[in-house]
């Protein structure tokens, strides 16, 4: 059983067209053939009528009918010296007969003139069937030409009718997981309407569920933030008290645990915020200013570890977007670069224009990302095959969402070459039109 509706339609219609063509062709051929035979008989009768009034001195082929028709008028004299064929013809009654003349099967018309003389109009059967066959074949030509045309048109009509379906599938494929809209129902074939309605219903429910999930994560992170902040305050207060060295060690471990938890909650909250309804804030933002601000913020952290944090290129580049989100994206990238770069390394930033796009590039001298981890980089909570350093594993997911929202692109490349390693992250964003 063929699975494709298109295939089934085409095969079915092709069979119908071919069958109709064949049956029509056979009927037309047979009809035209017998018509042609009858027509030739009537030609014989007409020639007989002419010969009736004017006896000919001798038998002769009739010219002027059709050079190939080979019609002959044979005078059947009384003389018994006539050939056996003539004698036998004389024995026939007036009218049309099938007979043999000069060894050839013929169609023969016998007539008797008023004066009693008789003659025969003959035509070779072989020639007659040949002419009839030719004429009948000619009636097949239009049918033969029509069948391929019909097949072609059928194929075109089928292809056209299925185009809306393919277009809908394309629309669905093109939509992003976190941004599934509804499929347009106007202009779609009515047969597809029930499917579209169910798919749209499903999409709606999925959207509601995803929204609920996002809100839950955001709410949970938000709710947890307050008690965790309170706990860290308590830990800070505790630190000011006198205590044995061992207790202080435990307290320090507790404090760094608190710090990590707070960071995780903050990252979760930031991710949930990016996942929620698209930010309505959209302004012309100077990307170079944002980058400078982030670098200024992180400079103390970098210099504490002797990392050379700075710019290689800075151009004034303006993009459209939510300034807070863009700051968060750049900050996460530069934080990563600093975190994964060994002490004494370097982190270089470049903000410039490239192919009518705004580009921010961050390059470090860290270990880079192992090639087998590159594909999964940016998945929530993915921190590489061998996680190193502290982190929630959410930073790049946040960056990816923000870049996605801004219809930009992000690329991770490992820097290789002469004893060098490091990660190069390139973010491209559409320039704001002025
Ligand atoms: N500059 C870099 N050099 C080497 N590895 C990196 C770099 N940036 C990211 N990675 C790898 O990608 C992983 C994911 O980065 P991401 O920023 O999402 O998480 P994180 O930094 O571990 O945690 P978070 O940013 O949420 O605190 C990191 O754990 C690290 O393995
Ligand atoms: Mg990070």
From TrEMBL:
Alphabetic keyword roster: Kinase, Membrane, Phosphoprotein, Transferase, Transmembrane, Transmembrane helix, Two-component regulatory system
CDD domains: HisKA
GO molecular function, one term: phosphorelay sensor kinase activity
TM ranges: 140-159
Major localisation: membrane
Signal peptide region: none
Domain Histidine kinase: 219-433
Membrane topology: Multi-pass membrane protein
Reactions catalysed, as given in the entry: ATP + protein L-histidine = ADP + protein N-phospho-L-histidine
SUPFAM superfamilies: ATPase domain of HSP90 chaperone/DNA topoisomerase II/histidine kinase (SSF55874), Homodimeric domain of signal transducing histidine kinase (SSF47384)
GO cellular component: plasma membrane
Compartments where found: Membrane
Descriptive protein name: histidine kinase
Annotated organism of origin: Bradyrhizobium macuxiense
């Amino acid at each position: 059983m063929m699975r494709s509706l298109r295939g089934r339609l085409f095969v079915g219609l092709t069979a119908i067209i071919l069958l109709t063509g064949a049956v029509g062709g056979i009927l037309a051929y047979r009809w035209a053939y017998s018509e042609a035979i009858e027509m030739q008989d009537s030609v014989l009768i007409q020639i007989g009528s002419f010969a009736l009034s004017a006896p000919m001195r001798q038998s002769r082929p009739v010219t002027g009918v059709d050079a190939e028709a080979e019609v002959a008028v044979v005078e059947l004299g009384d003389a018994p010296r006539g050939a056996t064929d003539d004698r036998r013809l004389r024995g026939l009654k007036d009218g049309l007969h099938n007979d043999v003349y000069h060894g050839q099967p013929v169609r023969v018309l016998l007539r008797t003139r008023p004066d009693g003389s008789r003659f025969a109009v003959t035509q070779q059967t072989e020639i007659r069937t040949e002419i009839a066959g030719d004429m009948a074949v000619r009636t097949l030509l239009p049918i033969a030409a029509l069948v391929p045309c019909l097949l072609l048109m059928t194929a075109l009509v089928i292809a056209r009718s299925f185009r809306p379906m393919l277009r809908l599938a394309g629309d669905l494929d093109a939509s992003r997981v976190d941004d599934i809209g509804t499929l347009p129902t106007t202009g779609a074939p009515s047969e597809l309407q029930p499917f579209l309605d169910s798919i749209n219903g499903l999409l709606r429910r999925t959207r509601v569920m995803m929204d609920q999930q996002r809100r839950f994560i955001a709410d949970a992170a938000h709710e947890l933030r307050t008690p965790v902040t309170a706990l860290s305050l308590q830990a800070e207060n505790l630190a000011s008290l006198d205590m044995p060295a061992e207790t202080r060690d435990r307290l320090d471990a507790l404090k760094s645990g608190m710090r990590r938890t707070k960071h995780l909650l903050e990252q979760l909250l930031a991710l949930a915020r990016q996942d929620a309804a698209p930010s309505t804030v959209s302004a012309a933002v100077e990307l170079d200013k944002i980058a400078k601000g982030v670098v200024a913020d992180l400079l103390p952290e970098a210099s504490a570890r002797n990392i050379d944090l700075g710019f290689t290129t800075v151009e004034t580049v303006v993009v459209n977007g939510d300034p807070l989100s863009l700051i968060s994206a750049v900050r996460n990238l530069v934080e990563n670069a600093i975190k994964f770069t060994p002490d004494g390394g370097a982190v270089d930033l470049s903000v410039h224009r490239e192919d009518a796009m705004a580009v921010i590039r961050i390059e470090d001298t860290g270990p880079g990302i192992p090639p087998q981890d590159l594909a999964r980089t940016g998945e929530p909570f993915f921190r590489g095959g061998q996680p190193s350093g502290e982190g929630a594993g959410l930073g790049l997911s946040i960056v990816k969402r923000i870049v996605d929202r801004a219809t930009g692109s992000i690329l991770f490349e490992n820097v290789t070459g002469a004893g060098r390693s490091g990660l190069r992250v390139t973010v491209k964003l559409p320039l704001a039109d002025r």
